[in-house]
Amino acid sequence: MSIETLPEQTQINSASTFDKDSFDQNVMSTYGRFPIALERGSGSQVWDTQGKEYLDFVAGIATCTLGHAHPSLITAVTKQIQKLHHVSNLYYIPEQGELARWLVEHSCADRAFFCNSGAEANEAAIKLARKYSHTVLEIEKPIILTANASFHGRTLATITATGQPKYQKNFNPLVPGFHYIPYNDIEALEAAIGELDEGDYRVGAIMLEPLQGEGGVNPGNRAYFQRVRQICDEIGILLIFDEVQVGMGRTGKLWGYENLGVEPDVFTSAKGLGGGIPIGAMMSKKFCDVLQPGEHASTFGGNPFVCGVAMAVCQTIERENLLSNVTARGEQLRSGLQAIAAKYPQQIIDVRGWGLINGMELSPDITLNAIDIVKAAMEEGLLLVPAGSKVVRFVPPLIVTEADVDRALQILSQVMASVMEDC
Ligand SMILES: *Cc1c(COP(=O)(O)O)cnc(C)c1O
Questions:
Q1: Is any atom of ligand 1 closer than 6 Å to the C-beta of 220?
Q2: pLDDT reported for residue 199
Q3: Ligand 1 in contact with 152 (CB < 6 A)?
Q4: Where does residue 124 fall: left (phi above 0), alpha (psi -120 to 50 degrees), or beta otherwise?
Q5: Domain 3-63+321-422 is of which CATH architecture?
Q6: 243 belongs to an annotated ligand binding site
Q7: Are 340 and 410 within 8 A, CB to CB?
Q8: 254: helix, coil or strand?
Q9: Which of 167, 214, 218, 269 to mutate to test ligand 1, by most ligand atoms within 8 A of the CB atom?
Q10: pLDDT band at 9, cuts 50/70/90?
Q11: Is 108 in the pocket of ligand 1 (CB under 6 A)?
């Protein structure tokens, strides 16, 4: 099929049948799923198999940067699959080089490594930090400090890095070499570095999210991060930022760290990078030669298909000036959420976020949880996702329009009125 004969989005409008029982019988039950099946999308809208329309403020959890069925995405996917979709990293891949160049030109990074997901990008960063600790810092048993309430992925090393026991339960023995500190607490960080400097143990790196996504939409504190940067420079250890959720424009800046006035030594990206195509990247400023040929690899990592598509995402962010849209829509959304929160001061205790990653926190003193609001909103045609038990998270596509945000706020205020009546 050539690009010219691609089916029009509007032609795919018939609701199809979906066999939930068959799905549940054949797919492992690793996810708690909502009982709807989504089958098509356009912009910030998605439709389920019943033909019901939803406003998508989940976007594949902060992933569908350009929303659904964006013309640039369709063109890039079609072009690349017709040309070449996969070859091994045994050979040079021009698309990988071009994407790396764009990332290097648009960040503090000097070079990039490509993989397939956020967890894998963090694994690569952890391996880099381990090797640097051994070979340069000469630490026998290097420790990476990570934060309480952090989230870094679901592999064994990254659930260990994740400072939330609920993700680790029953998966022990965990990977040694991680230690948790409270987020945004400089005294606790300094104390941990002191305490851990004993025998063969020493801190070799600190890994943090510029804003904690899964952990409850907790923005990093500027003064804290600036002091963390100073400490890392003073003692020569690596500062790693997990930009998987907040990178690629979600905060209104291309990278989360730009909100903090601090640059990392190593950072990772995934979710928004490919606009929904599976890709991850680990990037570094200065420490690009730590991992040598044969020391890290990925079969799919950086193949022509994902890199060609991710490049189109990057170019579209620039061409459509999406960062300013993110800032404007983010302000619109937050002020609307604050207006809703003002109606329920006992129940909603905070509204916070950067750009288009925002959270609305419910009081610990009420029985109502984030999931209750998410379910009620879904009924009314608005998709939302919790971030922990008490925070409702709003992460729409970066192409979301003013009318979309107004509509989402209108639905949410109706939903709040009805759930508050019940609780
Ligand atoms: C989602 C997420 C990850 C894990 O990414 P996967 O692609 O699911 O492996 C890691 N870190 C952060 C901050 C995330 O939000």
A1: no
A2: 85
A3: yes
A4: alpha
A5: Alpha-Beta Complex (3.90)
A6: yes
A7: no
A8: coil
A9: 214
A10: very low
A11: no
Residue 13 — pLDDT band, cuts 50, 70, 90? low
Q: What is the pTM of this model?
A: 0.96
Q: What pLDDT shows up at residue 349?
A: 98
- 349, with CB counted inside 10 A (0-12, 13-18, 19+), is middle
Please indicate if the annotation marks 118 as binding a ligand: yes
Angle between helices 370-379 and 402-422 (to 10 degrees): 120
For ligand 1, whether the C-beta of 123 sits within 6 Å is no
Query: In the chain, which residues fall in CATH 3.40.640.10?
Result: 74-319
Top mutation candidate among 63, 117, 245, 267 for ligand 1, by most atoms within 8 Å of CB = 245
Q: Chain-wide mean pLDDT for the chain?
A: 96
**Counting atoms of ligand 1 from 1, which one is nearest the CA of 155?**
9
pLDDT at residue 389 in the model: 97
Which amino acid, 316?
T
Share of the chain above pLDDT 70, in %: 96
* Span from the CA of 158 to the centroid of ligand 1 (angstroms): 9
Maximum Cα–Cα distance across the chain: 67
Q: What is the pLDDT of residues 389-408, one digit of tens each?
A: 999 999 999 999 999 999 99
Active-site residues, by number, are 151, 242, 271
Q: Was domain 74-319 assigned CATH 2.10.10.70?
A: no
What is the position in ligand 1's atom list of the atom closest to the CA of 242?
A: 13
Are 134 and 192 a contacting pair, CB within 8 Å?
no
What is the average per-residue pLDDT within 340-345? 97
